[in-house]
Amino acid sequence: MSLKRVAAVMLRQFYLMRGSFSRVSPLFAWVAIDMLLWGFMTRYLNSLTVSTFNFVPMLLGAVLLWDFFVRVMQGVSMAFFEDVWSRNFLNIFATPISISEYVSGLVLCSIVTSSVSLLMMMAVATAVFGLSFLAYGWMVIPFLMVLFLFGIALGVFACAVVLRLGPAAEWFIWPMPALLSPFAGVFYPLSTLPRWMQVFAHFLPPAYVFEGLRAVISGGVASKTGLVQGGLLAVLYCLLACRLFSWVYRQAVRTGLIARYSAETVS
Fold first, then answer.
1. Which candidate, 255, 247, 259, 233, places its Cα nearest to that of 154?
2. d(CA 95, CA 6)
3. Do 54 and 46 form a contact (C-beta atoms < 8 A)?
4. Could you say which of 7, 24, 30, 56 is the most buried, measured as most Cβ atoms within 10 Å of its Cβ?
5. CB-based burial of residue 195 (10 Å sphere; 0-12 exposed, 13-18 middle, 19+ buried)?
6. For every one of its 267 residues, what pLDDT tens digit does the chain have, with 9 covering 90 and above?
7. How far apart are CA 51 and CA 70, in angstroms?
8. Cβ neighbours of residue 15 closer than 8 Å, sequence gap 6 or more
9. What CA–CA distance (Å, rounded) separates 105 from 145?
10. Rounded CA gap, 86 and 76, in Å?
């Protein structure tokens, strides 16, 4: 693997973003709006309850972690879509770059963009609503790692779907986090779900993160076994997603589909 080629993929995204306010602003604006919206919601809920329970670390912390996961996924898929929208896909693979180098470049782009969004969310949540990450202790690190790995897996999977079905399939991609959120138990314990949804939830790494988050905020201890299971599932999904993307690419090359790849829907 050539690190220069990996860096070149990332450098291209940097040049795209450097001169485009519309590409840079979502890294700050939407996540800040999310933090403000849910932050004021938690304040309102705190004013309704007579107990001393604080909704900020529970609810706003969950929103922050979920937004981080979504930004990781979008960091991978948006970098890929830039090549699709600009019809640059064939140009890239006319070069000696390999699939692993290209995907690694997408992941690096996601690391940078999601880190910027995470810092913005932490700044707003801490400065405006007093969210203290000390409440989560060192467990915040495995929480973020599991969500990061699953976000990468979902982003690469999304790229594979669009590569196989065509640019119009991006409309299947954007709702993916929303479709998974009811099963992940972002805002409620998994025990509130019907049995069949609980079974599905145990295959989702974020479900272990948010169960652990609630346990820590309630004064308990997050299940290390659960987090290990979530981490292993996230790694497995990463490997499967990369494998799927590579297979779809080879099929597209073998069948000639990639030669017809353009901004129009692929039949």
1. 233
2. 12
3. yes
4. 56
5. exposed
6. 788 888 988 888 888 888 788 888 888 888 889 889 998 988 888 888 766 777 887 888 899 999 999 999 988 888 888 888 877 777 787 788 888 898 899 899 889 988 998 899 889 988 988 887 776 778 888 999 999 999 999 999 999 998 888 777 878 888 899 999 999 988 889 999 999 999 999 999 999 999 998 888 888 888 888 889 999 999 999 999 999 999 998 888 888 777 666 544 444
7. 32
8. none
9. 19
10. 16
Q: Is 2 helix (H, G, I), strand (E, B) or coil?
A: coil
Structure tokens at 177: 């986090």
Whether the Cβ atoms of residue 72 and residue 110 lie closer than 8 Å to each other: yes
Segment (H or E) for 240: helix 224-255
Count other Cβ atoms within 10 Å, centred on residue 266: 17
Q: Tokens 């990463």 belong to which residue?
A: 238
Tokens 């979504």 sit on residue: 70
- Output the six-digit token pair for 110: 């996601």
